[in-house]
Specification:
- By secondary structure, the chain is of the alpha/beta class.
- Helix content is 47%, strand content 14%.
- The protein is built from 13 helices and 8 strands.
- Strands 1-2-3-4-5-6-7-8 form an 8-stranded parallel barrel, surrounded by 6 helices.
- The protein is globular.
Length: 288
Amino acid sequence: MSVDEKPPTVRAGLTQALRTMGYEVLPFKSTFDKVTSSVPTCVPLSVTASPGKTIGTTVDLAIALADKGYSVTPHLAARMVTSRTELKEIGARLADSPVTSIFVVGGDAQQAGPYGDALSLLRDIREGGFEFDAVGIGGYPEGHALIDDGTLSRALAEKAAYADYIVTQICFSPGAISRWADALARSGITLPVRVGVPGAVSREKLLRITADIGIGNSARFLRKQRDLLYRFFVPGGYRPDRIIDGLRRDIDAPTSPLSTFHVFTFNVVEKTEAWRQETLRRLGASGS
């Protein structure tokens, strides 16, 4: 069923998802100009912590974009924070800026200071008296390549006490995301979940990214099933709304923790925003 053929209730749900989703961007030199030239300020943004950069680079970009009127969430990767002194400096900079939210992850970089995981950083943020309107943490619908499921579940439960929402790692299977969300609700974690989906990224770039970050079974399955892979990633074959539409019932269900979507743009922001605007027009909604 195409977007144009969807029933009114489904169209309304998809429209709301398109209006509330946020974009994740990478802290490169060109990012500021790319975002400000093609993304309206009503779209929430988050800025990753890149292992090849510093936390300061992430904070610099987040503040610069926030000064332009965007709602921006910088990623604080625990293993990249070199000291408690640096954490205090980061907290002070953000307190003096329009930035009011943070996203805390362990990170993939080699540990540079006292923090080996997200939980230890979250605790020091809380104990240091830093105040944010919202704190996000990561979730893994298909598990983590380096952490067993039991440890991952316990860590999520501990981090949830310090957080306001969860963003999932990329997963191409709506069914896997839905099952994970159900298990999350049964475990007693009630935080809203923003489902991570790739933006309007080319087949080649998306395949390279999935190989580099080692996401779960759905990516491995797609690589093995070449016919399905071809249908999914041919030009025009991958669209973010395919995953979004697969989760529309969960998003609309009052008992589901799934609340909205988080788009990993990989800095392909112009095409991703064009896709969002085009889909809104096809749904009969005005842009923005």
